[in-house]
Please model this.
Amino acid sequence: MKNFHEFTMERWMSEWETTVDYNLSESGVHPMSLGELLEISGTQVERLLDIEFHYPETNGLSELRETIALQYNGATKSNVFVTVGAAEANYLVMNSLLEAGDECCIVFPNYMQIYGIAQNLGLTTRSVQLCEEDGWRLDPAALDAAVGPKTKLIAVCNPNNPTGRILSAEEMDAVVASAERVGAWLLSDEVYRGAERLTDEETPSFFGRYDRVLCQGSMSKAYGLAGLRLGWTVGPPDCLDRLWRRHEYTTICSTMLSNHLARIALSPAVRPQILARTRARIRSGHDRIASWADEVDEIQLFESEAAAITFCRYSTPINSTELVERLRRDKSVLVVPGDHFGLDRHLRISFGLPHDILDEGLRRIGDTFVELRS
Ligand SMILES: Cc1ncc(COP(=O)(O)O)c(C=O)c1O
Model:
């Protein structure tokens, strides 16, 4: 059997996130409680008590799919397929559309799930690196050069994990043009859509810009409801049908309760309130991390545009995996090393946290840089 490629970052988090005092490794904002969700939505808890624990429709409750479709221009519920998180959505898309020997093109850095799946499926991977010197911009010429006649799928993450940058309209057009030129599928992971820092305008989706597109969404990040374990793919119905046949092998469906709670959270009256909560946390957390970074000479902060994470460069001559191990062991702080994205001398730090946790976690990271000076 060939070597299994582990999902290094998720492994790191699974192993340590519940053991540290200061977890600054999560990419979403601090989660909502069930009570907070019911209060924001004006839902009486009694309304939930009648829910019977059948399997829901295995592609997602019809009312939920209708509600999700409202977020995408031109979509109807037949374009929506509900999964157990965007993690399952990514897995199903890759396994349904590609097989060993196929070629895909991945824009780096990114969440790295697609890359790991590609390795495990035996795909040929071509890559395009976003340019750090140019504010993590996508170079259309580099993308076009990486996409060849054999490329069957192009994968992007927008807003981007780990950088939190949002593609411009021109960059989005360039992605579509490259995909269109060779007839490739476009897989767009859009789980941070709605978690913008600098604007209340939602990041545009790739849905509706190209026929062969699959867009991933999730309750985990922009809504602070990761524990619902509910995500989705929006795309052409015949393609979603292919995903469904694999979904029956992976999870069958997300839970009945999650389907109902997600429908409440995404309803037009509630969704804007949850996004306002998320953006408020991202904005205040960013202010704090920016002031901290001003004080720590070694840190160069990238001003992210969305998501509750920043991808900082640091100048201390220590490998990023070594540095995060030291932070975990000596300071009980968990952050993600740049190594997990193939970019050493960087840290991914989350800031959508309660301020006391964020401030103390950052203080400990700052202390470590000071200790490393000597
Ligand atoms: C870009 C991206 N896609 C997908 C996921 C998986 O999210 P979910 O909790 O919806 O499975 C994550 C989680 O961190 C992510 O950052």
Summary: The pocket of pyridoxal-5'-phosphate is lined by residues 27, 85-87, 111, 157, 161, 189, 191, 218, 220, 226, 231 (CB under 6 Å). The chain has two domains: 8-33+272-368, 47-269.
